[in-house]
Specification:
Family: Belongs to the strictosidine synthase family.
Helix content: 10-25%
Number of domains: 2
Pfam families: SSL_N, Str_synth
Main location: other
Bound molecules: 2-acetamido-2-deoxy-beta-D-glucopyranose
Distance between the termini: 49 Å
Subcellular location: Vacuole
CATH superfamily of the largest domain: TolB, C-terminal domain
Number of helices: 5
Radius of gyration: 21 Å
InterPro entries: 6-blade_b-propeller_TolB-like, Strictosidine_synth_cons-reg
Strand content: 35-45%
Length: 337
């Protein structure tokens, strides 16, 4: 009796170990990574008009371009003409971010091929297709300076840029305090390239982070990190009814970061797993969720407890691959889509 129960238990344990292992293997089956050679934390990922890249913004304030395994990373842009190279280049010290810069959201305008940058400290900036020193477009809205510029997307028809300022109280280097707080000072902002004016579309948000427009620009998704949810702002009705009150698009099991639309008009929401190390295998470990336009879950990416995926900021689908960014890891992870 005792013996058979023990055997059963052993059998069950082996069974689960097998499931956990085969799952663990599958996420790494087509895994590869592009290591950074300096700095860390490729938070957001972009590809240019020619499909070249990825481009990433890193911990030392620079934007780098990947030119393939033979040529490696090349500096593409710096966030300020006054940035001190000897102090900043290669820095991973978050206390230097206010002087070195910290590019977060990156987005090419597909019409002009200019890159728009949401730099956590330097605000909304732009740089041409050949890079160089970025030009600052805006650092405040309606009298309140940006404190933590973060996510970005562009309406390619109008050129209007949507972006977030995560808080007017906390800076990016204090993100852990912001996550523990009940701060509701985040803003959803809009930059009009013709009038060069920034307006506040919505304020009082709970750590607004990534933003993504729908394929025909009729609505905008905004991740509320500490709210564990994605809000949907209907842009088509804007101005008609006069209110911008959002709907809840999705509730999430973990802290959402960037939201990126793929070529099919679907959305990848990156979830910060918030683990400091590996997690037990076999336990659900969602690191990203793919949604359709109605908010239905199409796919869940499971990190299988691996330390590789314990800090995810973005999943960018491009040419059949998923490029996975992180604020803390020194690499871009790549999986098959
Ligand atoms: C890995 O890539 C191969 C070849 O493209 C494909 O057949 C297989 O399904 C992929 N596995 C996973 C887990 O994506
Ligand atoms: C990237 O770095 C990891 C960890 O240091 C190393 O195992 C791997 O071989 C590197 N990959 C490449 C392509 O250099
Ligand atoms: C934009 O897309 C939405 C969702 O797919 C659709 O309901 C709406 O009719 C479209 N609007 C226009 C102007 O095409």
């Amino acid at each position: 009796m005792m013996k058979s129960a023990a055997f059963k238990l052993l059998y069950v344990l082996f069974f689960f170990a097998h499931i956990a292992r085969s799952n663990g293997d599958s996420i790494f089956e087509n895994y590869s990574q592009i290591n950074l050679t300096q700095g860390t934390g490729p938070e957001s990922i972009a590809f240019d008009c020619k499909g070249e890249g990825p481009y990433v913004g890193i911990s030392d304030g620079r934007i780098l371009k990947w030119r393939g395994p033979k040529f490696g990373w090349k500096e593409f842009a710096i966030p300020s003409p006054f940035r001190r190279r000897n102090l900043c280049d290669g820095s991973t010290n978050s206390d230097l971010e206010p002087v070195c810069g910290r590019p977060l959201g990156l987005k090419f305008n597909t019409e002009t091929c200019y890159l728009y940058i949401a730099d956590a400290y330097f605000g909304l900036s732009i740089v041409g297709p050949y890079g160089g020193v970025v030009k600052r477009l805006a650092t405040s809205a309606e009298g309140d300076p940006f404190r933590f510029t973060n996510g970005i997307d562009i309406d390619t028809k109008t050129g209007i840029v949507y972006f977030t300022d995560s808080s007017i109280a906390f800076q990016r280097r204090d993100v852990d305090s912001l996550l523990r707080s009940s701060d509701r000072t985040g803003r959803l902002l809009k930059y009009d390239p013709y009038t060069k004016k920034v307006s506040v579309l919505y304020d009082g948000l709970v750590f607004p982070n990534g933003v993504a427009l729908s394929a025909n620009n009729s609505f905008l998704l905004v991740a509320e990190s500490t709210g564990f949810r994605i809000l949907k702002f209907n842009l088509a009705s804007q101005g008609k009814s006069g209110d911008n009150v959002p709907e809840v698009f999705a509730q999430l099991p973990r802290v959402p970061d960037n939201v990126k639309r793929n070529g099919n008009g679907e959305f990848w929401v990156a979830l910060n797993a918030g683990r400091s190390g590996t997690a037990p295998s076999g336990v659900p470990d969602p690191i990203a969720i793919k949604f359709d336009e109605e908010g239905n879950v199409l796919k869940r990416l499971d990190g299988n407890g691996a330390i590789t995926f314990n800090s995810i900021s973005e999943v960018k689908e491009f040419n059949g691959k998923l490029y996975i960014g992180s604020v803390t890891k020194p690499y871009v992870a790549i999986l098959n889509a």
